[in-house]
Design goal:
Post-GPI attachment to proteins GalNAc transferase 4, two-stranded antiparallel sheet, PGAP4, membrane, glycosyltransferase activity, Spore Coat Polysaccharide Biosynthesis Protein SpsA, Chain A
Length: 395
């Protein structure tokens, strides 16, 4: 018996043994290579927060401040169009109306100018494919005249304002309820002013990605023809990167994670078998590589795998929605009217902000909603309009 155990130990512990190969691969990958390569990746488990968070946060703020100044100069140099700012909504119905909701924040970052300049540039770049798109700025500052950036934008975009000048604040309306009421106002005004086929409601710190219009064009022409998507209450175009991991109570992500392992397990087994000169099919090794690839993808960060889908619009994923957040929300005209009716009947408060209120409707009203992956906007606003924070961090 002892002799048999010694033989078994000798077989497993020889350098040519698969056990030693795979153990070495695991130790080198997770103990050496991944920590060295990924220690600066913000959404990776290997991220060294204590070393990098403060300097990276300061670097981001500095860069974003420069982008705000660049956006200011963009509009200062831009020639004011000769056409009327308010398009004749009676004779033209846009396919897509981009509504930018804005409130006065810190002047030095010019958040709304960053968003508006990016949309303006991308629409110019898009050309004839985006001729049926329009942009509307919705100013929800209680005293609209205080919002200096909006004054500049009024020369280039149609504008609506929720003027509360001179009114005494209603003590029953908390910050979260006001934010919901502002959202309802802007969505309602979008429908009244333009009656578009789709409304993209964007908060003033959600800068669009380069490919937003080609992806939306693909969704309109190809994906939304499916009934289950056509009847959705809304589509989220942003979900926080830190919440995009596989280990999450979302069934679709677990299925995606398992599918990744089922695909990469046999592929990596074939690569290993070819390199080691062994039989091509070995179920224990396939299972090892499936677990290896699943662990590596989770620890490095699902967010970085999602970025590969930016190669083409057809690769973008449309999956059932998750709870947080609302920087960029796409509604069809009919779903926007349903959402307005629902939201007007809800009272928001701390712990039940408008994003949670919208998500709660899926259960209470039997609605469906989806999120587009990867994100089609970047959330750049580290200074919130709801919370005071003098030292914001990226995480």
């Amino acid at each position: 018996m002892l002799h048999y155990a010694w033989q078994l130990y000798g077989r497993w512990c020889r350098w040519s043994s698969p056990f030693i190969h795979l153990l070495t691969l695991t130790v080198v990958t997770f103990g050496v290579l991944a920590p060295l390569i990924c220690h600066r990746l913000l959404y990776s488990y290997f991220y060294l927060r204590r070393w990098h968070l403060n300097p990276m946060s300061q670097e981001f703020l500095s860069q974003n401040q420069q982008e705000g100044q660049a956006a200011l100069h963009y509009f200062e140099k831009l020639q004011i169009p000769n056409i009327s700012k308010a398009s004749n909504s009676e004779t033209f119905r846009p396919l897509l109306l981009v509504t930018i909701i804005t409130v006065q924040r810190r002047d030095d970052f010019h958040y709304v100018l960053q968003v508006a300049s990016r949309f303006h540039h991308l629409l110019q770049q898009c050309g004839t494919n985006c001729q049926s798109h329009r942009v509307l700025v919705c100013n929800v500052e209680p005293d609209p005249s205080r919002h200096q950036d909006v004054k500049l934008l009024s020369s280039f975009f149609p504008m609506v304002s929720r003027d509360k000048t001179g009114e005494d604040p209603d003590p029953r309306v908390n910050h979260f309820e006001k934010e919901k009421q502002d959202y309802v106002f802007c969505l309602e005004q979008s429908l009244l002013a333009y009656n578009p086929e789709y409304v993209l409601v964007v908060e003033d710190d959600a800068v669009p990605e380069e490919e937003i219009f080609p992806v939306l064009q693909h969704l309109f022409l190809a994906r939304f023809s499916k009934p289950y998507l056509r009847d959705a209450l809304y589509f989220k175009l942003y979900h926080p990167e830190r919440l995009q991991q596989y280990v999450n109570p979302e069934p679709m992500r677990i299925l995606e994670w398992l599918g990744l392992g089922m695909f990469l397990g046999p592929v990596l087994n074939c690569v290993y078998s070819w390199a080691a000169g062994r039989p091509s099919l070995n179920w224990p090794i396939i299972l090892f590589f499936a677990a290896y690839s699943m662990a590596l993808s989770e620890l490095v960060g699902r967010h970085y795998l999602l970025e590969l889908r930016r190669l083409a619009p057809v690769l973008y994923n449309v999956v059932p929605v998750t709870e947080c957040c609302t920087p960029a929300m796409l509604f069809s005209a009919s779903s926007a009217r349903r959402a307005l009716g629902y939201l007007k009947g809800l009272q928001c408060r701390q712990g039940f902000a408008k994003d949670i209120a919208l998500y709660s409707l899926l259960r209470t009203k039997g609605e469906n909603a989806y999120v587009v992956e990867p994100n089609l906007v970047r959330h750049v606003g580290m200074y919130s309009s709801l919370w005071l924070n003098d030292n914001p961090k990226l995480l």
